Amino acid sequence: xxxxxxxxxxxxxxxxxxxxxxxxxxxxxxxxxxxxxxxxxxxxxxxxxxxxxxxxxxxxxxxxxxxxxxxxxxxxxxxxxxxxxxxxxxxxxxxxxxxxxxxxxxxxxxxxxxxxxxxxxxxxxxxxxxxxxxxxxxxxxxxxxxxxxxxxxxxxxxxxxxxxxxxxxxxxxxxxxxxxxxxxxxxxxxxxx
Length: 193
Ligand SMILES: [Mg+2]
Hints:
By secondary structure, the protein is α/β, with parallel strands linked by helices. The protein contains nine helices and six strands, in the order E-H-H-H-H-H-E-H-E-H-E-H-E-E-H.
């Protein structure tokens, strides 16, 4: 049966909604999810790279980060597919210093559903960055559910079937063969067809 890799932020957990709550409460902004049309946070927040990093690090240390809510339907779909015999792995771009918090969040919200959690450190300036395609190939994952265009392109180029989770920042033309999905019910159908 297939091994399936799944991203966390804005695929399994609604990261951006809680970041927006944090930012609006702390800095008095009126950000909405539709404002996040790219990963250019300094441009979206209107502050420097350094200030952006400071704010995101504060978000990581806050309860808003711990209390990220699972994306609607994700728990149900993953448990149904697990019953059918699929194996799930988390492949997240989060930095290595978030390993502990990430494990806690996954076991609280998706206890027993994932065989392992892999961090690729894709957005942090320090430490080794690993390509998600490399992790998927090592895990023998045939499918990845992902929302970052950088990873979507990398995995698709390396022969992994990509289900691209629709978000405001990935509404470009997707690489050939990549399928855009809008919710977890649709993912259930696409995988079991
Ligand atoms: Mg993501």
